[in-house]
Amino acid sequence: xxxxxxxxxxxxxxxxxxxxxxxxxxxxxxxxxxxxxxxxxxxxxxxxxxxxxxxxxxxxxxxxxxxxxxxxxxxxxxxxxxxxxxxxxxxxxxxxxxxxxxxxxxxxxxxxxxxxxxxxxxxxxxxxxxxxxxxxxxxxxxxxxxxxxxxxxxxxxxxxxxxxxxxxxxxxxxxxxxxxxxxxxxxxxxxxxxxxxxxxx
Length: 201
Known about the structure:
Elements: H1 12-25, H2 30-44, E1 52-54, E2 60-63, H3 66-78, H4 83-92, E3 96-97, E4 103-106, H5 140-145, H6 148-195, H7 197-200
Antiparallel strand pairs: 1-2, 2-4, 3-4
């Protein structure tokens, strides 16, 4: 009489590895989670003039006021105020800008009420340039297809980022100069201590 085969026992170690891999696979990128949380919290507010919100279909979102978004929302959720940096992040995850006259972005896996899809969004495997073409003034599609207002906005964002980089560079140079001055003082103190009569005796 044939008997049913008894499955081989699964060790605790193998089981924990499988569970660990499964939990890691289901965890979305922090940037995506924060962006989703930002939109959900804005949705709960009763303010008529929203800074950012889901679009009408819930298939994407719109940044209605980039200046206020950079000044208020980005520092709160992402610890910086660089709008162009936020857009570059969207670009690396495959978001598309779908409107020419407003900052509206869309991804097929980033939808209102579908948080579980966030874990399926991954970074682009090949990224020739992390800078989106619609923020690059030299790109042909900007010159040919965009409005003058959007070109000016893109140029302004580039100028702001350039100023931020210059400021960061200056701060780093000041810190380096400060540490070099401390180094000189420490060496002087050490030299004086070594040359003091008390140490010679």
